[in-house]
Structure prediction request, 297 residues.
Amino acid sequence: MMKKNSAIVMGIIILVVLLVLSFLSILHPAHDEDAHRMNEEYQKPSFEHWFGTGRGGYDLFYLVISGIKYTILVALAILFLRMLIALPIGLLTGINGGLIQKVLRKIATTLSAIPLFLISFALLARITFNEAIPITTKLIIFIIINACVGAPIIAYTISKIVERINQEPFVEGALILGASKLYLLRKHIFPHMKPYLISLLITEIVHILWLMGHLGIFNIFVGGTLVESSPGLIIYYSITNELAGLLAQNFSFIIVRQAPWLALIPAAVFVLIILAFNLIAEGIRKREQAPLRGVNL
Prediction:
């Protein structure tokens, strides 16, 4: 059993360790005056500064660690809200079919043809750069918008899963015996779609993380973007130090090769988080033997 679930355990351990470290980072004064040392700008990783230092002499290790909680928890919040919207719609359209399912299919296929980050970018751009809007409000808006743009696709996926289960002999037998749709959902459909839902949840959160990464490339950061300008130069900063923001705001250092670790280290941690969720998803697929490959739009 342990060998069969080793991928799940490893993925969970990685996420728990990262989250614990991130919340413990609150105890470290990463942003106070003691952490701001101009003479220590752009130092390479060392025993004193494990991840090196960035602009203003800030220790990158504590910036990365402090931003992990925003990356993971915001992604989970988006996933939760997406499922809250998509699950009832998918169940109802899947069991009833008809015109509603056709409309849902049209919406889902249309959204699948358009990169979701473009829709999110268009809706978030003016809000993200508005310094008058509080960080908490920006976080909530970021979560709601990214949940809503992805919900129709998940709803249609769930609808197709329900439709497939509806074709099973045990469901048809229950219908012949006079079972109601509510009874079918509770006793037959939902228990049999559970493995698919779990796999869908983990797969979807990886998509959400990639979406956050794409938005970061265009300076749409979780919690808002701070803009500093000087003659001939505009610099974008992530207010929350979430990983996609740290990667994007420091990406130019890879190009000029001045301090490439400022982007490469946040990128590595971001990929580690995606890897952890992928490990959990793969472990669940092997344990439940319920891949989603047969469910297509």
